[in-house]
Amino acid sequence: MERFLLAKERIQEIKNENILKPEFQEYFRKTAEWAELVCDTYEFVEQGRLATASMEELKERNHRLYEDILPGNYENSYANPGCSADCFGEEYGQILCFLYGELRSMIPLAFEKRMEDLTIRMELFLEVYGSFLCEQQENGGLPAPQILKEILYWYVSDYTREATEKKLDDMLSPESDFALKLIEGDLSNPRYLYYFGEYVTDNEIETWKHLNSLQEETLQKMADTYTEGYRIGFQVGNKDISKKKTVNIRYCLGFEPMIKKAVDNFRKMGLKPTIYRAASSILQGRGMNRIGYYGAIPNKQYDFDHKDDQALVLDKKLVQVRMEAWQEGYETYKEQAAVFGGPAVVEVFGEKPADLKENPHALHLSEAQQKLTVEYMAAAGELQNRYIKGEERSFTIIAFPIPEIGEAFPEIFDEVVRINTLDYKLYQRMQQVIIDTLDQGKYVLVKGMKGNKTNMKIMLHTLTDREKQTNFENCVADVNIPVGEVFTSPVLAGTEGTLHVSKVYLNELEYKDIMLTIQNGMVTDYICSNFDTPEQNRKYIRDNVLYHHETLPMGEFAIGTNTTAFVAARKYGMEDKLPILIAEKTGPHFAFGDTCYSHAEEVAVYNPDGKEIIARDNECSLKRHNQDSAAYFNCHTDITIPYDELGEVSVVTHDESVIPVIIEGRFVLPGCEELNRPLEEANL
Q1: Which of 290, 335, 395, 428 is the most exposed place for a label (fewest CB within 10 A)?
Q2: β-bridge mates for residue 485, sequence order
Q3: How many CB atoms within 10 Å of residue 98?
Q4: Quick check: 321 and 157 in contact, CB under 8 A?
């Protein structure tokens, strides 16, 4: 408390000081005023005024906290690397932009009343300001950039352990229940949305209104589909859910009426929920992808510009500190880790696509730092699997649209609920026909049409006993909702060709004319047409699809069978808004990175017909037996070819006979006619 009050008092004094060069003084004055607003918000929450303030006051305060990075203001914000570079020059601009971005992690801390974490960020700001003051007063100049970088480096290094422990506590301990208390509270008025400390727009409020307007039966059906998918995931994965005591719920604000029912369902299974916030601090690994619960995204360009902020401080010693922090944290929480079941995720889609631009002034990882990041992710993944065993955990993912998708939102929402609850027994039967055909094969051919240049050969594992073995999993509504795919882990040797899609969205980023070249199952070349130069396009793919790896293996080949979802996407013009979760069911897809059985390859998995799925490994994952760090890549990105760009999917048998499965976007196997009906009814 004493440190907090001292820091607050010192920050309040800054707005009246005029010691530094004007452009720097203005930065610290404006940033101090914003920090004052956060301190005021902390006191606002501490005094219980969230419950008594008017809706308009809550909305106004929420807007003020986030307005600086909103698209209309971002061009002139210190959070914009370009603006900071213009004001302070390249080096000082990157440092002060980094600091500004980290200070924004104070917002959720104020709502969670985490005074100590607030204080360390305020002290960081004051330490940087003090460095400027000292140099100005003593020498009339600016502190050396290296001195400022060291301040930021030691902030990250000194507080990584506490931040890591807090992250594990939030993920593994039901007692960390900030969000749960709000979810189980009064949801009759949307004002509760402002209690989280996340950015709130009409989108979240309208989502709440729509869910609140649904019949109780529909809301319960949504929750049941979600939680049953999680339970069935354990069942089909041959894993014992009775060993587990916790489940991690991840979702977007506005869906609390459904999540509340899901919490009840999980408790009936014997699982307590953990619900943690997506990271906003560099101490906990903030980046482009939000993992946890979150509200509206104020500005995706801001996220894109700051995704590599760690480049300012990352070195081998810091990686070691992080790994030690994870080791100590997992050891502290090893009992909770052993009974953690895995995540249950609710994704949303429908946001307007962001036209992201590469900012030349943003921080970017060097080649050495990219290599460090890859090594760190591999080591961290290996460590996590030691405490949260892959062969014992599971997950589920379901997706729903949000009002931003357009005026037809209510109709689209109803259609997606229908898609998420399709008759999985019907799909199971038709998919079994496809699997029985594919299991006759040595390899599969996939070719594009209508300008799609795909020409792929995918090698399959050899079945030694076709009566008891299969290559493909019959995937219905369990871990990946909705129903609609058969998938395998290909043999890498001999898998080759070109994969091309005219337009696809991967993790909310658009890729135009993405083309990957594959040799022996590994990516050897890649390009797209998003930017003006080949170098920019290659960097875009390497950063966001290959995740800084030199190459990735093809971890999955699948045939999506959900033609109903494809037709709905065309009907409402939302192909560019579908999440991968649904998009991957609307055509054949290829995933790059780990297999679908990553860290659980030793667990025998069976299809409903009783056959064991033997294609759980590839040449990379097999390295776990003698070179674990080279076995996994800690990523898995699906790229889907839509039916109307699909010329052929055929299986080639061991005697070189060719059996067509799909020709010009239509399933041609007897027994799969029902899959074509939605396409024919829509004249697609």
Answers
A1: 335
A2: 475, 560
A3: 23
A4: yes
Q: How far is CA 633 from CA 390, 553, 554, 571, in A?
A: 15, 9, 11, 37
Q: CB-based contacts of 5: which residues, under 8 Å, 6+ apart?
A: none
Other CB atoms within 10 A of residue 625 CB: 8
- Residue type for 514, please? I
- Specify the pTM: 0.87
- Distance from C-alpha of 297 to C-alpha of 349, rounded to nearest angstrom: 12
What confidence score (pLDDT) does residue 477 get? 64
User: Could you tell me the maximum CA-CA distance found in the chain, to the nearest angstrom?
Assistant: 85
- Token digits for 22? 């004007």
**What's the pLDDT tens digit per position in 578-633?**
887 888 888 899 999 999 999 889 989 899 899 999 999 999 999 998 877 789 99
Q: Which amino acid is at 70?
A: L
Q: Are 94 and 312 in contact (CB under 8 A)?
A: yes
| DSSP calls for 609-646 | TS-EE-----TTGGGGGT-GGGT--S-EEEEE--GGGE
Q: Which residue in 334, 99, 61, 349 sits closest to 203, CA to CA?
A: 349
Tens digit of pLDDT for each residue in 252-270? 999 999 999 999 999 999 9
The count of other CB atoms within 10 Å of the CB of residue 220 is 16
8 A C-beta contact, residue 143 and residue 131? yes
DSSP, res 576: G
Can you tell me the distance from the alpha carbon of 531 to that of 543, in angstroms, rounded to the nearest whole number? 14
